[in-house]
């Protein structure tokens, strides 16, 4: 089985009890909300990754104000064709960020199609990736270990 490691950096940006999220298409043609951020390029520092990715996906420039923690996930993806299944390991670095400039806009020709602020109280009703729940728990609790356990969504 082929193994793949993906390291990515994301930011929790909360302002006036609202969180900044981006919307991403799903494999089945739907849409889900994601935390702004994304994969590190080879040789790139994770701090630089989150600043770059957030500006690409939302139009905002941020100041990183803290490291909230890490999340590690592992899934096997079945692939059609000759390559077979993939053992995918994702390491997600979660920062706290503060918007310091730029203007809200949607990403063009990227991995997301919409950027928006959402009331924190509305997040549970959103179609979202599990990382949002993990990141918000890190933001609220600020565990010394940099790690939380969030139940899987149904």
Q: What share of residues is helical?
A: 10-25%
Per DSSP, what share of the residues sits in E-state strands of 2 or more residues?
35-45%
How many distinct beta strands?
8
Give, in order, the helices and strands. Answer: EEEEEHEEEH
CATH homologous superfamily classification:
Nucleoside Triphosphate Pyrophosphohydrolase
Count the helices. How many? 2
Q: CATH class, anyone?
A: Alpha Beta
Largest sheet: 4 strands, mixed
The CATH topology comes to Nucleoside Triphosphate Pyrophosphohydrolase
Description:
With about 150 residues, this protein is α+β, with helices and mostly antiparallel strands. The chain has one domain: Nucleoside Triphosphate Pyrophosphohydrolase (Alpha-Beta Complex). The protein contains two helices and eight strands, in the order βββββαβββα. The protein has helices spanning about 45-60, 130-140; strands spanning about 1-10, 15, 20-25, 30-35, 35-40, 60-75, 85-100, 115-120. Strands 5-1-7-6 form a four-stranded mixed sheet. Strands 2, 3, 4 and 8 form a four-stranded antiparallel sheet that branches. The chain is globular and about 50 Å long. The two termini are about 30 Å apart.
């Amino acid at each position: 089985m082929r193994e793949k490691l993906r390291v990515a950096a994301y930011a929790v940006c909360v302002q006036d009890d609202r969180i900044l999220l981006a919307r991403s298409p799903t494999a089945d043609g739907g849409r889900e909300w994601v935390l702004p951020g994304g994969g590190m390029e080879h040789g790139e520092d994770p701090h630089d990754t989150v600043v770059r990715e957030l500006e690409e996906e939302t139009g905002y420039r941020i100041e990183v104000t803290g490291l909230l923690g890490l999340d590690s996930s592992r899934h096997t993806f079945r692939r059609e064709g000759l390559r077979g299944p993939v053992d995918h390991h994702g390491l997600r670095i979660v920062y706290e960020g503060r918007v310091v400039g730029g203007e809200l806009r949607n990403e063009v020709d990227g991995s997301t199609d919409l950027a928006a602020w959402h009331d924190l109280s509305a997040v549970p009703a959103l179609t979202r990736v599990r990382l949002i729940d993990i990141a918000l728990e890190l933001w609220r609790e600020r565990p010394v270990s940099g790690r939380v356990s969030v139940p899987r969504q149904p």
